[in-house]
Every structure is written in C-alpha cells, then in structure tokens.
Specification:
The chain has nine helices and twelve strands. Strands 1-2-3-4-7 form a five-stranded parallel beta sheet. Strands 8-11-12 form a three-stranded parallel beta sheet. The chain is 35% helix and 19% strand. The longest helix has 17 residues. It has one domain: Metal-dependent hydrolases (TIM Barrel).
Length: 268
C-alpha cells in the first residue's frame, strides 16, 4: 500500500478558506496531470456561529463547495474524489458536525484540525501561543477530547504545537506521549503533514527545523504499537496536490510507522 499512497491525498484546501488558491476543478486537473488516484477535499468547515471566519468559508458557501465537488466527480471519472471538511472541535459543534455535515450534507469524512484550543476560558492559537507547559497540557487535553468524540477520520498535524514551543524538553515529550497514547487507545490515526516541509524553517534552540512535522514527535510515535498514520500534502495550491508525500512516507518508514487510508474507499 505504501507506493499506492503516494498517489492519494486526503487533505486539500480551496480558495474558499481564504488562504489557499484555486477551485475544486483546478485541483482535480492538477491531480489528474500527476496521475493521482484519490483526492480528498477538506476545506476549513464553515461554523454556525461564524467563529474564525477569516480562515474559512461562510455557511452560505457550503452549498457551492459541495456542488463543485459533485460536478468534479462527473468531469473527472478517472479520479476518486472525496468530500470532506477540516474541523475545529468544540462540544457545541458536535451535533452540527454529526447531523448536518456527516448527515444532511453527506460528507464522506471529517478531519480534526486544531488551530486554536481553550485555555483559561479563552481560545488561544496553536501557531503562536502554545508556548508554556500549561498550554501544552491544555492543547493535548483538547486534542484528545476531539478524538474521543468519534467524529473524525484522523487528526491533522497533531504536532502543530512545535510552531510555538521551540525547545524540545520533558514538557513537549509528555504532550506528545499523551496525544499518541490516546490515538492508539481510541484507534484514531495521526497525520504526518507535508505542508510544514514547504514552509520556511524555524530557528529553534537546537538549530533550524520545520515548523512541523516535528521529528521528535514522530520518533516517539515509532515506539507505540497499534498507531495508524496518514500522510498528506495539505495542499493549498493546485501544484501541491501531491507535494511532500514521498518525504512524509520516508519519515514514517524510517520510524517503522504503519500507514493507513483514513477513509474506506469502497464505501464512498
């Protein structure tokens, strides 16, 4: 399966998220040109309370998003196209995700992509504010609560805290172990996200490194039996539709990690 997964991407954004380029058709055209077999669209979900609207589509755009994917399935029959969304978890959204997105809208899958997490009554950003031991603990607890909801096919970039907490120490190790152990216990795959490999490197105390994937996180992941791993491009441009998958696969292989498909293709 490992070779086959280099032609499959389950994490794709479109212009509707306000920080990506290209519509559904443009990504499909690029995927076909690169001989992709599977393309899963997972744009940032609209939210009923319009929270974080600057990085996601509005509720009024969801119908067109779905229609574009349905049309692409007819226009690109050689490509397996999946309809999904990337979601921030919050208890108040569970019914919306389950009954509306997975139910009425017929999403093939949802992924958990946590860019904010609750801390002392406020939402703080993982990209810049997960910078203390207490916040690392809060982030891990939040990610695990989302996993336990049973809503998500996998967890995107679980090691995103590395964007904020630059030193690898006992706190980052504990955060990583909590997330990985819960993923094993709950049977929820974790994602090695290739987008971070295409971004400028951070200047960390141990030297330059990607913002993510966080190599030490995946070193620890290799110690756990029963963990399933997804590789993704996290494409934000059509030209990146299969980008960085080989690097992600190599990261998994050198650590003895088990790769999986997050969606059963025979059922969608």
């Amino acid at each position: 399966m490992n070779h086959e997964l280099l032609s499959e991407n389950y994490h794709t954004h479109t212009v509707r998220c306000r920080h990506a380029e290209g519509d559904v058709a443009a990504y499909c055209q690029a995927a076909v040109a690169r001989e992709a077999a599977v393309l899963g669209f997972t744009d940032h979900t609209p939210l009923p309370d319009a929270r974080w609207q600057f990085v996601r589509m509005a509720m009024s755009e969801l119908s067109d998003y779905c229609a574009e994917i349905d049309a692409a399935r007819k226009h690109f029959p050689q490509l397996k196209i999946l309809k999904g969304l990337e979601c921030e978890f919050a208890p108040e959204y569970q019914a919306f995700y389950r009954e509306e997105l997975l139910g009425a809208w017929g999403m093939d899958y949802l992924i958990s992509g946590s860019h904010w997490f609750p801390y002392k009554g406020e939402w703080v950003g993982v990209h810049g504010e997960a910078d203390t031991p207490a916040k690392l603990t809060a982030y891990a607890d939040y990610l695990i609560t989302g996993m336990a909801s049973g809503l998500f096919a996998y967890v995107a970039h679980p090691d995103l805290f590395g964007c904020s907490y630059l030193t690898w120490d006992a706190n980052t190790e504990a955060c990583s172990r909590d997330i990985i152990a819960a993923a094993v216990d709950l049977n929820v795959p974790l994602e090695i996200n290739g987008y971070g490999l295409r971004k400028p490197y951070l200047e960390a105390p141990d030297g330059p490194r990607p913002k993510y994937p966080l190599m030490q996180f995946w070193d620890i992941a290799g110690e756990y039996d029963g963990l399933d791993v997804v590789i993704s491009s996290d494409a934000h441009r059509p030209c990146d539709v299969l980008a960085s998958l080989q690097e992600c696969l190599n990261m998994a292989a050198t650590r003895g990690l088990t790769l999986c498909r997050p969606v059963e293709l025979a059922t969608v």
